[in-house]
Design goal:
Elements (H helix, E strand, L loop, with lengths): L8 H11 L2 H10 L4 E2 H8 L3 H13 L3 E6 L2 E6 L4 H11 L6 H36 L5 H12 L4 E7 L5 H5 L4 E8 L2 H14 L4 E5 L12 E7 L8 H10 L1 E12 L6 H6 L8 H10 L2 E9 L11 E8 L1 H6 L6 H7 L2
Parallel strand pairs: 4-5, 4-7, 5-6, 7-8
Antiparallel strand pairs: 1-3, 2-3, 8-10, 9-10
Helix pairs in contact: 3-6, 6-9, 10-12
Amino acid sequence: MAREHGLGLDELVDVLKAAGEPTRMRLLALLAAGDLTVTDLTEILGQSQPRISRHLKLLAEVALIDRYQEGAWAYFRLRGEGAGVALVRDLLSASDIADAVLRRDGERLVALKQARSEKAQDYFSRNAAEWDELRRLHVSEADVEAALKKVVGTEPVDGLLDLGTGTGRILQLFEGLYRRGVGVDASRDMLAVARANLDRAGITKASIRHGDIFNLPLDGRQFDLVVIHQVLHFLQQPQAAIAEAARMLVPGGRLAIIDLAPHALEYLRDEHAHLRLGFSRQTMADWLEKAGLAVEETVDLTPDTDRDRQLTVTIWLARDQRQAVASDTPESNRALAYAGRT
């Protein structure tokens, strides 16, 4: 299998040494299926935590796996890219699916994910009534999702970031669009729901992270598309969240915001923790401009004559302007043009 950037001889040997051990190959197979903790892995493999940790350290040293912290827990997953990772995927694809050890690991992984799902569903069920009440106030979720897909379009993107991912629905909705996806949420309960939903849908190219929307645990300029779906009205400083989202975009990347238009339902402040009663087109355009973005499209989804539906949902699609500046700038000055936008 030809690769644009291959491995040097020493790198190749290091990767083969790291992967060429039964426990580490089993770990790679499991981490290719999603994010797992050391506790998860010890439960599946039946080995001690120190031993699993040593194996994970070796795999991380040759850049085959990623590690990220979520409170007291550390999660691991197979990296999304790299020549070494591509080689590992080739090795995994050559494995015998009927192998007794790998089959047993797979069965234990399914059981673990099922337990996760049941726990997450319990939380979701306890809060479903409140969410259903809010949904009844505006157009259907199906209509919102259809409009969002139309606005975003069908052109594939390399990276998608969903801020305030909640149930992980956006990562599921655009599964066919992105090569790698990341969902970030401040609620660990919602992260459990999102992980369970991605597991159930068999989506392994997306990961879920715990994080602060104002200070994301990610390097900037990584994503072609960032989505903020029904989050900003919960925030005291939504413009700061927009600026942080803009920091995540590659030059020319796009930010899609889905939120409520201005309304007068004051009870949502006390009963549902809404800090903002919607956003006007002008206010949002001003915030986006200050973040270095230009609005490309705005869509209002207004309720029909149903008197119970009183809220309008607005979709804003904005594009980072660094690409436009660079394209109009002589080659010798392009670096300065990019720097001026950061």
